[in-house]
Amino acid sequence: MIQWFSSIRIGAAVVLALLGAPVLSNAPLRAQEQTIVVASTTSTQDSGLFSYLLPIAREKTGVEVKVLAQGTGQALETARRGDADVVFVHARSAEEKFLAEGFAVKRYPVMYNDFVVIGPKDDPAGIKGRDVVAALQAIKTKGAPFISRGDRSGTHSAELALWKDAGIDITKDRGPWYKEIGQGMGAALNTASASNAYVLSDRGTWLAFKNRGDLAILVEGDKRLFNQYGVMLVNPARHPTVKKEAGQRFIDWLVSPEGQNAIAGFKIEGQQLFYPNANDPNA
Amino acid sequence: MNEFARAVELAAGLIGDFDPELREIVVLSLGVSLTASALAFAIGAPLGAALAVYRIPAKDVLIVTANALLGLPPVVVGLAVYLLLSRSGPLGGFGILFTPAAMIIAQTILGIPIVVALVHRMTVGLWATYGDALLVDGASRMRATASLMNIGRDGLIIAFLAAFGRAIAEVGAIIIVGGNIRGYTRTMTTAIALETSKGELSFALALGIILILLSMTVSTLSYFFGRVLTGR
User: Fold this and answer.
1) Would you say residue A27 has pLDDT above 70?
2) Is A190 on the interface with B (CB under 8 A)?
3) Residues A264 and A131 reside in one and the same domain
4) Enclosing domain of residue B102
5) pLDDT band at A167, cuts 50/70/90?
6) Quick one: CA torsion of A80, A83, A87, A93, rounded to 10 degrees?
7) What is the pLDDT of residues B102-124, one digit of tens each?
8) A176 and A217 co-located in one domain
9) For residue A69, which phi and psi values (nearest 5 degrees)?
10) Quick one: which of A49, A206, B79, B218 could link to A201 by a disulfide (CB 3.0–4.6 Å)?
């Protein structure tokens, strides 16, 4: 509440400023110094990981995290504009591009889970098994309905890479069976559930998802379905407003044994959702 | 239909429990939207009245613009405010992107054209009826306008309510400029969007029912407030 009222005050000040009144100074409020904005993905929020992890992080580090759950593409864009202190995403090539552009100094691997192909239980395209490439080829051959995120998220880029692995040029070979919805993971699962379609999902969001209808996991365990998450502090040299001390403290905790154990401890119905791997130099 | 029954049950449960997180979300939703509609009213009502009473250059252009902006898409306003308030934008120095203040600004912008258009329409009618008489009595246009606003009090309440209705119901602008941050910028509409994406459809609908009840409460209170004010 107190925070809210102070925001109202700032809001009123801004409105006055917009109307031509003298501009008030932009001194950071003391209470906000320990608060950071983390731009992350829909999977970390929709799976419930953040609701579980952030209270622990706050207790151990004193850093309060405000999460923006966006797709990986949008999260990196938010950070590029200087509107986030930390990014926590899952698309290695996009993360490396972000690093190369100088928007971050270091990328830390944090954890992984995996993607799964979800589809109707009666599996009309007959894709059930381990081989994701064969599964995608069967979906295309049969013209079975497939929902694509289409939002430049981490899951969307993983999906595009998998089509490529399957030797399918999806921009050219797509038909009416391929529906690009341009929304988050949950919306894609809702759409698939409502239309009995196939869809690629991260396992965490699927496990936490409540509106499954007739859908089930059909393809899992292929090593091409590996899904790595990384975290980066936005480069303070590019954006001086970045809260580097608190941001780094949060990152250090995430990759510390304590943070890694906390991540491993997150379970839904007895199933572990994310596997910590900060110590893997290749991750 | 099952979902609807469950949603009603869940909504009743949430209201009965006085769930603390829900309470926070309700307070924020009402706070942001009431502040925004009050600001939109404070800016829009004088403008709308002046457009009816005074001879203003390019008056028709302003009126047509206000009417056209009734259909202002929230998502576009959200995006524009986002770009202005972003650290890389012209007003980035304030550091208010992803705060309730940013949400108030976006909803105020959405509300202004509604208030301008409605107050203008009302004042044109009143001015045609009472304008000459008021001026003959020797009142200045300023005084005459004040008298008209007094006569048209219930119309003003409608204008305020229309702006509030627009604000409390929209999700497109505030999800972009507020970021739907839990415990900070999460409102009723952004929470509904989130619960839907989690597949919690009944829970999302339950929140929707509570939102509608809230809107009805605000409009009922305004109605009685208006009755007291107009003495009818």
Assistant:
1) no
2) yes
3) no
4) 2-230
5) very high
6) -20
7) 999 999 999 999 999 999 999 99
8) yes
9) -90, 100
10) A206
Which run of H or E residues covers position A107?
strand A104-120
Q: Which residues of A touch B196 (CB under 8 A)?
A: 186-187, 190
Residue A77 within a domain: yes
The whole-angstrom separation of Cα A279 and Cα A275 is 12
- Provide the residue range defining the domain that includes A219: 114-225
* CATH code of the domain containing B182: 1.10.3720.10
The mean per-residue pLDDT over the stretch A115-136 comes to 97
Please check the confidence at residue A31 and state whether its pLDDT lies above 70.
no
CA distance A8 to chain B (A): 6
Nearest Cα residue in chain A from B201 = A211
- The answer, for A239 touching chain B at a CB cutoff of 8 Å, is yes
Within-domain flag for A57: yes
Burial of A14 (0-12, 13-18, 19+ CB in 10 A): buried
pLDDT score of A282: 83
Measured between alpha carbons, how far is B36 from B38 in angstroms, rounded to an integer?
5
The pLDDT assigned to B229 comes to: 74
pLDDT in tens, A32-47: 459 999 999 988 988 9
Shared-domain flag, residues A214 and A165: yes
**Same-domain pairing of A105 and A57:** yes
- pTM over the 0.80 mark: yes
* CATH code of the domain containing A91: 3.40.190.10
Asked whether A278 and A109 are in contact (CB, 8 A), the reply is yes
- Structural tokens at position A113: 């889970």
| Chain A interface test: which of B10, B34, B87, B186 (most A C-beta within 10 Å) | B87
Q: What is the 3-state secondary structure (H, E, C) of A33-66?
A: CCEEEEEECHHHHHCCHHHHHHHHHHHHHCCEEE
Q: Are residues A133 and A193 in the same domain?
A: yes
What's the pLDDT score for residue A26? 38
Q: Tell me what ipTM this predicted complex has.
A: 0.84
Asked, for residue A4, whether it belongs to a domain, the answer is no
